[in-house]
Amino acid sequence: MAAAASSSNLGAVSRVRQWVLSNFASSWFLLAPLLAAYAPRRLFQTYFNLFLRRHARRLLNVVDPYVSIDILHCPAAARYSSLQPVAETDNTYEEVKAYLSGTAARRTRASAAHHQTKDGRERRCQRLTFHNRHRLLVIDEYLPHVRRQGRDILFRNRRRRLFSNNKTLDYDSLYYKAWSYVDFNHPTTFDTLAMDPAKKKAIMDDLDEFRNSRDFYRRTGKPWKRGYLLYGPPGTGKSTMIAAMANYLNYDIYDVELTVVRNNNGLRRLLIETTTKSIIVIEDIDCSLDLTGARAMRPAPPTSTAYERSDVTLSGLLNFIDGLWSACGGERVVVFTTNHIDKLDPALIRRGRMDMRIEMSYCGFEAFKTLAKNYLDVHSHRLFGTVQELLQGMDVTPADVAEGLMSAKRAGCSVDSSMELFVEELKKRKEEEDKAKKKEEEAKAG
Q1: Rounded to 5 degrees, what are φ and ψ at 332?
Q2: Model confidence pLDDT, tens digit, residues 359-371
Q3: Where are the bilayer-spanning segments (predicted)?
């Protein structure tokens, strides 16, 4: 019985072997050469990529103590089609010498379909080479320093904008933009601003201190913002001062028109959609809205509807300046201008909201010299003494002085003729002011 069972098993095995050979012999004949050719190469590639390359890199570090880091260019700035050679330079940072050169690198990309790697598109890059002992200094300090410097350069070279809130009272729509803008290209700087030099220097120092006080505001727990109140008669250069501040700080300007803001919620949304490093301006705030408690007691004008009337309150404006919502973002400057500082609510201009009050006064002699330099390109003249005497006894705005100098310049006169015409105009204006004052005194006496 045992012999019969063993013979039957051998017969079954032989039949299976014959079936396999008959069905797969031809296929194996074709696949065997391919596998024999592919398997060693595939194993070699895998072994080289995962093992040999790692050990080769370690061996190279022993022989060559220098480390290279490739910094790829941003796709928006790089031009792959025209790779121009970059001169090799050496830079020193904290007594550590590094070499920077331009090159082109191929980024390796993986192919999931074939389980292998391929060379990607060639990209332009900067290769930084330094000694291995300075690895931590370069990675932890130098490269973050380069990134900060790069951000500062991009910020300085960007196109600055002048924003204005759109002429509508409804900012609740998700599809409606609260701000529209144009490019800001105002040429005014502190060098061309007609103001006393000592006052200009104080303002510039204050702006510098604010711009460099990020750690101070964070340490004290205060929002990183500063308020300026510009007050004075019309024509004294309040708007020009704002342009000079924006050019000095390299900030954008957001010009808020309160009369088209429907309510406090709309004012809050305007604040949320402003960016950092910006100047928020509300000009002629004493005329923009009636921000006193007496407004609620007076009936609305018969021609205005509930939708057309602005319901911005003093409380909403105060929260706009230094409330909780004012802390969103940072590095903001808030500027109010007014012709009548006595008409403003004391809560609006107290310390902490308006940190610096700047009086834009009538034109003095130092401001006149700046205007003469701007319009006539003259630093000194024999008639400067006469102009100084005339300006001391009269109230004339820088805008009036600039117009007088510009009128003489338009007439094609020389510097001497322009100064003579301007002095004559000042004398006539002084006579008119003296006559007006005399009439007022006689009226009071009578």
Answers
A1: -120, 145
A2: 999 999 999 999 9
A3: 20-39
Residue type, 300: A
Question: What's residue 43's pLDDT?
Answer: 57
Q: What is the DSSP letter of 65?
A: -
166 shares its domain with 117: no
pLDDT tens across 380-390, in order? Answer: 999 999 999 99
As a whole number of angstroms, the distance between CA 432 and CA 425 comes to 11
Measured CA to CA in angstroms, residue 289 lies from 166, 228, 260, 295 at distances of 17, 19, 10, 10
Which DSSP state fits 74?
P
CB contact at 8 A, 346 and 377: no
Task: Classify residue 161 by burial, with Cβ atoms within 10 Å: 0-12, 13-18, 19+.
Answer: middle
Based on the domain organization, do 153 and 172 belong to the same domain?
no
Whether 26 maps to a domain, the answer reads no
Q: What is the pLDDT of residue 86?
A: 46
- Same domain flag for 148 and 111: yes
Each residue of 216-264: pLDDT tens digit?
A: 988 988 889 999 999 999 999 999 999 999 999 999 999 999 888 888 8
Same domain? 337 vs 235: yes
| Domain end marker among 336, 359, 382 | 359
Lowest mean pLDDT among 27-31, 282-286, 428-432: 27-31
8 A C-beta contact, residue 164 and residue 255:
yes
Residues 254, 118, single domain; the answer is no
What is the arrangement of strands in the sheet containing 225-231, beginning at the earlier edge strand?
179-183, 161-165, 252-255, 278-282, 332-338, 225-231, 356-359
Distance separating alpha carbons of residues 386 and 183, to the nearest angstrom: 42
Based on the domain organization, do 131 and 178 belong to the same domain?
A: no
Under DSSP, the state recorded for 277 is: S
Q: What's the CA gap between 405 and 370, in Å, rounded?
A: 12
Inside any domain, residue 12: no
Domain assignment present for 19: no
Give just the sign of the alpha carbon dihedral 29, 33, 34, 36: positive
Residues in the chain: 446
Same domain for 275 and 261: yes
Q: What is the tens place of the pLDDT at every residue in 34-55?
A: 555 555 555 555 655 656 666 6
> Measuring CA to CA, which residue among 372, 428, 424, 380 is closest to residue 401?
372
The count of structural domains within the chain is 3
Domain of residue 233, residue span: 161-296+306-359
Picking from 157, 189, 204, the residue at the C-terminal end of a domain is 157
**115 falls in which pLDDT band (50, 70, 90)?**
very low
CATH code where residue 238 lies: 3.40.50.300
Q: Say what angle helices 365-376 and 384-392 make with each other, to 10 degrees.
A: 140
